[in-house]
Amino acid sequence: MKMIDSSSLELSSDSMLSVVGSQFSAAFGAGVEPQTTDNRQLTTRVAIAGATGYAGAELEKILRRHKHANVVAAYSSGSFSLEALFAARPEVVFLATPNEVSAEVVPAILDAGIKVIDLSGAFRLGEPSLYPSWYGFTHARPELLGEAVYGLPEWCNGELKKARLVANPGCYPTSILLALRPLTYLLDRTQPVICDSKSGVSGAGKKADVAFSFSELFGNFKAYGVGQHRHEPEIRQGLHLGERAALVFVPHLIPTVRGIYSTMHVAFTSPVTDEELTGLYRDSYADAPFVRMLPAGQMPELKDVVNTPYAEIGFQLLHGGRRAVIVSVIDNLLKGAASQAVQNFNRMLGYAETEGLL
Ligand SMILES: NC(=O)c1ccc[n+]([C@@H]2O[C@H](COP(=O)([O-])OP(=O)(O)OC[C@H]3O[C@@H](n4cnc5c(N)ncnc54)[C@H](OP(=O)(O)O)[C@@H]3O)[C@@H](O)[C@H]2O)c1
């Protein structure tokens, strides 16, 4: 039985990640028994598929320090199979795998009586007909899209406790929905909701692609996937914009490893004041340990949230309170992926929401 020290999974640089990734692939290659930590006196048995990826590595780091999680298995692509997973007898499986992989394995995992927290986009959209065009595949069990709980924990109530399947939100949607959900009923839907978002390169995962190479990104800044990004229908769904209201989502790549900086431009049906918006945010996030609101007129910075599980939001009213610019920042691998997944886990299992995260 191979034991891997998860403390080696430091996300200090891309090269470090690829070294760690290859160590994991070697350790968990086909035929090698996954690591177990059954000797730890913890209460819920969890497994991680995609533990050698950027999001999965963060997830494993958090879960290994979580008082109530017993990580019974962690898989790379080479070591993952449903047989191996079922043999490890997890109660909850985290999938930090590509969309197609999650879509394929989730039905069998649920049928085996195991709960799933899926970090991919495979179960985030409620409407099955959106998958062929936005994700390039058709769901074999589309009814699961209706069952999946969209796990933006700040906007969930008791449904997480009962959930068998949680669809962890995408990183861009997390930053945008946290900022705009409190304002949903104030928005003037005759005017476009404009979301101008920038992401560090780890948002694309560890795949090798010239567009994400150092020489393409260093000293550079570029928009990509305008009108075509998979997170667009997720943002539309999360803001209840329907099919008609105009949404403009422009993702950009910035030359940094991690972090998302979203700038939203919105109009209101009638003028609002600083006090009204501040009150709305305060009421929405009174019990949210990982959302920090800045005073009116103060804008957040990426460096204040990178490597943390927090989202930070600031706003500036314009044109006599008829419009606003709202800025929201998160770490894409934490609040945009792994720490949010653990918030969902904590809510599902009835643990303190902050367990493992502070
Ligand atoms: N990166 C982010 O900021 C972010 C944020 C939110 C959500 N997500 C989502 O989280 C998931 C993982 O993203 P990531 O950025 O961590 O990707 P990544 O760095 O590319 O890692 C992908 C992981 O999935 C494993 N994998 C690939 N194909 C597999 C297969 N056929 N069977 C089992 N495992 C397989 C890989 O194993 P190997 O190491 O062996 O290749 C690796 O562990 C994706 O669905 C992504 O959309 C990512």
**How far apart are the termini?**
31 Å
Mean pLDDT equals 90
Second CATH tier, the architecture of the largest domain: 3-Layer(aba) Sandwich
> What fraction, in percent, of the residue positions are helical?
25-40%
Strand content: 15-25%
Number of helices: 12
Which structural class should the secondary elements be placed in? alpha/beta
Quick one: how many beta strands? 13
Q: State Rg.
A: 20 Å
Q: What's the CATH first level of the largest domain?
A: Alpha Beta
The CATH topology of the largest domain turns out to be Rossmann fold
How would you explain this protein's 3D organization?
45% of the residues are buried. By secondary structure, this protein is an alpha/beta fold. β5 (149-150), α7 (159-162) and β6 form a beta-alpha-beta unit. The strands form 2 sheets. Strands 8-9-7-10-13-12-11 form a 7-stranded mixed beta sheet, with helices on one face. It folds into 2 domains: 2-168 and 337-349, NAD(P)-binding Rossmann-like Domain (Rossmann fold), CATH 3.40.50; 172-330, Dihydrodipicolinate Reductase, domain 2. The chain contains 12 helices and 13 strands. NADP nicotinamide-adenine-dinucleotide phosphate binds at residues 21, 25, 49-56, 76-78, 80, 96-99, 101, 119-121, 170-171, 202-203, 205-207, 332-333, 336-337.
What structural keywords apply?
seven-stranded mixed sheet; binds NADP nicotinamide-adenine-dinucleotide phosphate; 19% strand; six-stranded parallel sheet; 358 residues; alpha/beta; Dihydrodipicolinate Reductase, domain 2; Rossmann fold; 2 domains; 12 helices; globular
